[in-house]
TrEMBL record:
InterPro entries: Pirin (IPR012093), Pirin_N_dom (IPR003829), Quercetinase_C (IPR041602), RmlC-like_jellyroll (IPR014710), RmlC_Cupin_sf (IPR011051). The lineage of its organism: Archaea, Methanobacteriati, Methanobacteriota, Stenosarchaea group, Methanomicrobia. Residues 20-122 form the Pirin N-terminal domain. It comes from Methanocella arvoryzae (strain DSM 22066 / NBRC 105507 / MRE50). This is Pirin family protein. Residues 155-235 form the Quercetin 2,3-dioxygenase C-terminal cupin domain. Belongs to the pirin family. Pfam families: Pirin, Pirin_C_2.
Length: 243
């Protein structure tokens, strides 16, 4: 079964933050946004598409017991925490943070000239009280062109590891190209079109900033009508097939 969410169906947020402003597309309940129909998908609890104005800073704030994956869509993303650790991400790069027992961190637009857009995903960890850690991966555009490139996975060589049974793939699909992905019975996929397209998914037309939840049994087949960037998140689901 495929459930499509068009761009206007995804919650839009905006506001003032330190040194600037942000706009956001929040896919699941987050902050002051509450929607009982959209509280997560398997262990995926947050999927935010945020853009920070030049120089803007999401100020230091605390978290506990979450696995965070950050994907930079455009601009220069900088992560910082209370230990002084963090890192820079550029377009296509990915970072995994185990918050575990607790972390105070911030997200920063490291450019004073251009906006910065990033995707942040939160997952429930598979065990509590983990020590905090941060790691990241540089991904070249050629690596993800016309394929589903593994960013985060406990099974794929070279991917970032995570304390949950999830996998995250990125793809830059050139016009007319296709990718395929098979879902086992117990797993689902969340797909987000970051830019470009439209992308066709088994008869559904997905423009930029649209998403789709796919529950088994389904084989995912994506074809881009124009160049497109997308993410695919593979998660375990309850045996009922419902998120």
């Amino acid at each position: 079964m495929i459930r499509v969410r068009m761009p206007h169906e995804i919650y839009q947020s905006r506001g003032q933050i330190e040194n600037g402003t942000f706009t956001g597309k929040w896919h699941f309940s987050f902050g002051s946004y509450r929607d009982p129909k959209h509280v997560g998908f398997g262990p995926l609890r947050v999927f935010n598409d945020d853009t920070l104005s030049p120089g803007a800073v999401w100020p230091l704030h605390p978290h506990r017991e979450i696995e965070v994956v950050t994907y930079c869509v455009e601009g220069i993303f900088r992560h910082a925490d209370q230990r002084g650790e963090g890192g820079i991400l550029r377009a296509g790069w990915v970072q995994h943070t185990t918050v575990g027992t607790g972390m105070i961190h911030s997200e920063i637009n490291a450019s004073w000239d251009n906006p910065m857009r990033f995707i942040q995903m939160w997952f429930k960890p598979d065990q509590p009280m983990l020590p905090p850690s941060v790691e990241q991966k540089h991904v070249a555009k050629a690596d993800r062109t016309n394929r589903l490139f593994p960013l985060v996975s406990n099974r794929k060589p070279g991917a970032l590891r995570i304390h949950q049974d999830v996998e995250i793939f990125s793809s830059f699909l050139q016009k007319g190209e296709s990718v395929h992905y098979d879902l086992p019975d117990s797993r689902g996929a969340y797909i987000y079109i970051l830019d470009g397209g439209p992308v066709t998914l088994d008869g559904h037309v997905l423009p930029a900033n649209s998403a789709a939840e796919i529950v088994p049994p389904e084989a995912v087949s994506l074809k881009s009508e124009n160049d497109a960037e997308l993410l695919l998140v593979d998660v375990p689901l309850p045996q009922s097939g419902k998120a």
